[in-house]
Amino acid sequence: QVQLVESGGGLVQAGDSLRLSCAASGRTFGSYHMAWFRQAPGKEREFVAAIHWSGSRTFYADSGKGRFTISRDNAKNTMYLQMNSLKPEDTAVYYCAAGNVYLTVIAGGYENWGQGTRVTVSS
User: Fold this and answer.
1) Is the pLDDT of residue 103 over 90?
2) Gap between the Cα atoms of 51 and 98, Å rounded
3) Farthest-apart Cα atoms in the chain, separation
4) Is the dihedral of CA 96, 99, 101, 104 positive or negative?
5) Can you give the three-state secondary structure of 18-35, one letter per residue?
6) CB atoms within 10 A of CB 6
7) What tens digit of pLDDT does each residue of 17-49 get?
8) Residue 88 in contact with residue 40, Cβ under 8 Å?
9) What CA–CA distance (Å, rounded) separates 73 from 4?
10) Euclidean distance between CA atoms 56 and 48, whole angstroms
11) Contact 60/48 with Cβ under 8 angstroms?
12) Using one digit for the tens of pLDDT, what is the confidence trace for 44-82?
C-alpha cells in the first residue's frame, strides 16, 4: 500500500505550462507502476499518461501526446507531469494512481489514488 498526494494545479491561461507533482509516503514507491488520470465535471475519469516502475518507459494518451511529459524520481518518492501548451480542454481534476501492472489505462486497474489537484485553463 502507498499513500499519494497531488499538488501543483492552478488557474492558467491557454498556452501556459504547469508541473504537477505526486508525493508518495509508502516505503515501496519504486515497486509501483504509476499513472496520471483526469476527470472533468460531468465526465468519466480518463487516462492521461503512464510510467514504468523503473522510469525507463512511458506511454501517453493522444490528448497529451507531444505536450505532456511524465517522469518520476524514485529516490524522492515523487512522480511528475509536466504540461505545456495547455488548452481549455485540459481543464479537469488530475489524479495520481499506482498499481502493479504497467500500461493499465482503465481507472479500475489501479488500487492507490491521491485526492486530486485541480487544473483550470482559461481561453
Assistant:
1) no
2) 10
3) 41
4) negative
5) EEEEEEECCCCHHHCEEE
6) 22
7) 999 999 999 767 888 999 999 999 999 999 999
8) no
9) 14
10) 17
11) yes
12) 999 999 999 999 999 999 999 999 999 999 899 999 999
